[in-house]
Amino acid sequence: MPELPEAETIGRALDRALRGRKITAVEVFTPAMRTPLLPLRSAGLEGLEFTGVRRRGRYLLADLSDKRVLLMHFGMSGVVRVENDSVPRRKHEHVFIRLDDGNIFRFECTRRFSMLEVHDSGKDGIPESLAGLGVEPLSEKFTGEYFFAAVSGRSVPVKNLLMDNSIVTGIGNIYAAETLFAAGIAPDRQGKNLTLEECCRITECAVKILKLAIEAGGTTISDFRHVDGSEGKFVQNLQIYGKAGEKCSRCGTVIECIRLGGRASCFCPGCQK
Ligand SMILES: [Zn+2]
């Protein structure tokens, strides 16, 4: 599932491809998704212009010239492409939004858990359905003090707290694992047992890793692809995610894997305390 760096990467490419383009037609091929796609047909999108693409957490918001937004989330296997109309429709491409430059914005999802909806842009430009999202990790609000206050008193493993979208949005299994490795904190430490100093280390490491991952175009593990079909290169920088049984790059201890909140969680027993 794309996390923040992957969504940011897709969003930047979509912004370049969609900004200033007018919508000429909307085609929906697959009505039966988790969130229905048919409303797109009658949303009156034809003739509107895309004025830009923004990100909030793992969501992308393509702004429309009538102050509405096309809100998208990639679920487990969502892919978007902007390609010429000479390329035939792929089996799992469910929506075509035709553009005035002859390209098509294509929405693909093999497992049908993605989302593409038109919303009013709402207060501060953010649709109401996203109002409950926590702070952006790359905003100045995501400080050690903030994270300390959010997790203190919680009998929940820190890794789950870092992945809790109501606290901080956009961090999933990959970047939570990498952040805690960089910070030297064991993923099963409970929120209530963390010190302010440790929370500062966690937020600083998270910001650093997310920025590096954005520079590398995100991490491709399985389904994530760039808008042009290429892969994210941060996979080469992973230190702990998916490395169970390998030796820690920092101390040489064999990396272990536990399950937290149903998710595999790799960590180094040697340098994560
Ligand atoms: Zn280690």
Number of domains: 2
- The residue ranges in which pLDDT falls below 50 over 5 or more consecutive positions are none
Chemical compounds bound to the protein:
zinc ion
Text of the CATH class of the largest domain: Alpha Beta
Task: Give the number of helices.
Answer: 5
Helical amount: 10-25%
Structural account:
- The chain folds into two domains: 4-130, MutM-like, N-terminal (N-terminal domain of MutM-like DNA repair proteins, Alpha-Beta Barrel); 144-267, Helicase, Ruva Protein, domain 3, CATH 1.10.8.50.
- The protein is elongated, with a radius of gyration of 20 Å.
- It has helices at 4-18, 144-151, 158-162, 173-183, 196-215, and strands at residues 23-28, 50-56, 59-64, 68-73, 78-84, 93-99, 103-109, 115-120, 256-260, 263-267.
- The protein starts with a helix and ends in a 6-residue tail after the last strand.
- Helices cover 22% and strands 23% of the residues.
- The chain contains five helices and ten strands.
- Helix 1 runs parallel beside helix 5 (196-215), helix 2 (144-151) crosses helix 5 and helix 4 (173-183) packs across helix 5.
- Bound molecules: zinc ion (ZN).
- The site of zinc ion (ZN) has 7 residues, from loops.
What keywords describe this structure?
alpha+beta; N-terminal domain of MutM-like DNA repair proteins; Helicase, Ruva Protein, domain 3; 4-stranded antiparallel beta sheet; 5 helices; elongated; binds zinc ion
